[in-house]
Each structure stands twice: as structure tokens, then as C-alpha cells.
Request: fold
Amino acid sequence: MNLVLVPPNYGLYEKCSAAFMGILWEYSDIVEQYSIDEAFVDMTASCHLFGEPVEVAEQINVHLIYYKEENRWFLLKKF
Reply:
């Protein structure tokens, strides 16, 4: 296996992060973004709507598209 170095694309990273945070806000009114790619979601008030946190994680994953282009993985929300 060889190491492949690619130039960073911070703009794309920000865009994907914002899109994912938007998805989290669809499941709870309490989302605390910890960093550009991490967040805490309080599901206390919304478990009765969407299920337990593990079930919600599975639901979120269903709404995402993963694809590989030029040895790089991308994540998009399905519309």
C-alpha cells in the first residue's frame, strides 16, 4: 500500500460539514457542533419521534450517498 497525498480542499470540507450539520438539525433542536466534523446531538425530546439514537444513526445513514472519485470518498445528502 502506498501513501497518496492530495491537496486539501477546505471549502469542500466546510460545505460537507454544513450539509451534515443540517441533517442533524432535522432530528433534534439541540445540536452542539464540537468541531468542523464532530457534533453532539441531544435526542431526549425527539426519541419518541425518531426512535433510539442508534436507530436515528441508521436513518441518517440511509439519507447519505457515498461515492468515490479519483481515490477520494465524498458524502452527499440524497434529495
About this structure: The chain has a mean pLDDT of 83.
